[in-house]
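Objective 1b of the project was to move from sequence-level analysis to a structural picture of ligand recognition. The entry below was assembled by the postdoctoral researcher (A.K.) and checked by the PI before modelling. It contains the amino acid sequence of the target and the SMILES of the bound compound, flavin mononucleotide.
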Amino acid sequence: MKVGIIAASIRDHRLGERVVKWVVSEASKITGWEIELLDLKELNLPMLTDARQPFDMNREYPSEAVMNWSQKIEQKDAFIIVTPEYNHGLPAPLKNALDWLYPEWNDKAAALVGYSIGIGGGIRSVEQLRLTLAHLGVATVQQVTTIARAQDNFSEDGTPLNDNFNGSIARSLSQLGDWGRALLAVRQKS
Ligand SMILES: Cc1cc2nc3c(=O)[nH]c(=O)nc-3n(C[C@H](O)[C@H](O)[C@H](O)COP(=O)(O)O)c2cc1C
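Corresponding predicted holo structure:
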């Protein structure tokens, strides 16, 4: 199964870096998964200004960066989205990245990982994200992993400082494997 791990924060010195490293390391342990990190900071997508709706773009996008994004998403069976919460919502770069595409997302699965510097763990961002993903035809697995005070739970290199989140991420990834395979069958049918 081809799994894309989407790093949603593009901020300088982002806290998410350590969480993303941990998620990449956990997902890499799963036999049969081919992992690719899709870092929105590196992918450098322009803001969506096109007059057409992505639904009608026929996979023809106005920039190389978006063409590249489209191809990467098209190739994947499933996603793990690692996101902070900004003002009780999902971060703008993530929403923009989701909005750029449409058919590439359809009938795929996603697991959501939220984090924060405070006690919220990104839960409101994650729950908003579910609504947008539902419209894009991405099925989000039940188990979310939310990490409050990520700076106290992971070192900068992504090493967990305790085992608080091991159970949660294991369930998220297990559900992602099941749903990713189920949706592959759905895509093969159509
Ligand atoms: C614009 C902005 C809004 C924020 N709003 C929230 C929020 O609503 N809830 C929360 O728990 N943390 C909020 N924070 C704090 C973030 O949890 C913290 O800055 C974290 O480091 C963001 O992740 P990042 O560094 O990977 O971007 C906000 C941060 C920023 C920059």
